[in-house]
Amino acid sequence: xxxxxxxxxxxxxxxxxxxxxxxxxxxxxxxxxxxxxxxxxxxxxxxxxxxxxxxxxxxxxxxxxxxxxxxxxxxxxxxxxxxxxxxxxxxxxxxxxxxxxxxxxxxxxxxxxxxxxxxxxxxxxxxxxxxxxxxxxxxxxxxxxxxxxxxxxxxxxxxxxxxxxxxxxxxxxxxxxxxxxxxxxxxxxxxxxxxxxxxxxxxxxxxxxxxxxxxxxxxxxxxxxxxxxxxxxxxxxxxxxxxxxxxxxxxxxxxxxxxxxxxxxxxxxxxxxxxxxxxxxxxxxxxxxxxxxxxxxxxxxxxxxxxxxxxxxxxxxxxxxxxxxxxxxxxxxxxxxxxxxxxxxxxxxxxxxxxxxxxxxxxxxxxxxxxxxxxxxxxxxxxxxxxxxxxxxxxxxxxxx
Length: 401
Description:
Layout: H1 2-24, H2 38-50, H3 54-67, H4 72-84, H5 88-101, H6 107-119, H7 125-146, H8 151-171, H9 175-188, H10 193-209, H11 214-220, H12 227-236, H13 240-247, H14 265-271, H15 285-294, H16 313-328, H17 354-362, H18 383-397
Helix pairs in contact: 2-3, 2-4, 3-4, 4-5, 4-6, 5-6, 6-7, 6-8, 7-8, 8-9, 8-10, 9-10, 10-18, 11-18, 12-15, 12-18, 16-17
């Protein structure tokens, strides 16, 4: 009986020690300077993260955690790094730890929304991400009312929550919702206002351009499109095969032929696709073959298409000119402005694309700078700008789809 009691006593002591060790966790390291604080290292880690320096960011977050193992920001920062590296399981574990430690540190909810957005798992990922932002917004409103000391910080979290909510909607192609979220940030005139304004202008362009296909919406988000992207936009958004079928000048043959089936145009294009050596394994191969076959875009002298070559405004104008000539049959468009004084301070009339540029500006498909009249012929074309110009091109062709 005594032996059993003694064993029970020892067991109780051991369990007590284990429980004490678990509750205490790792001990904080000693602070080496007045600047050597968890908050400081968290802020520095976020700056490094924003600059893409993941190793340096992680080092700062781990230092914050070492200084205070119960500091929520350290885990939230570590979660961001894990997310960026595609380690979503570790990211969720870290961010949930941060939220559990301090549910008033609203960055945790915002970062969790960002992780859900990056992973995009399941059909309801948008709703799940927005739910996290709304949690942050609700708690920020409560903090502003209850704690005057946290009013400025709560306002910043509100701004941040709306900004990343806009990013989530944008990546889900819910452009009107993104527009509303970014506009809220711009109105707050805080730290995120400038970034939000750029995103707001982008989604406004996309809303005006109204991409009709999912792939068009994806390309609309590309800052600088390449030749493959343009080929896809012309086929899918301009409906170039339909344009050529309906608008190309008809030739008349008095000989008898069986009635042609107009629905077979696209099949005929696909069956006669040109073989192009540098697009064999390219994601846009089918669109490129179609557009080259019908003459919407040309090959280079070496018979390559160069699908990854970036499109400049001069390139875009030249493509539009070639399509206009093809659909109207008016070959004089190719030389209409040659020999006249230049309309643009940055484009000499001897430039290879001058005629195409002037044609596009005169037809309202492209526009010169309203301040100095320059065209910006070497500037890249974004997906959103390409879509807007394609819509103007459709208007010039007087076609709707």
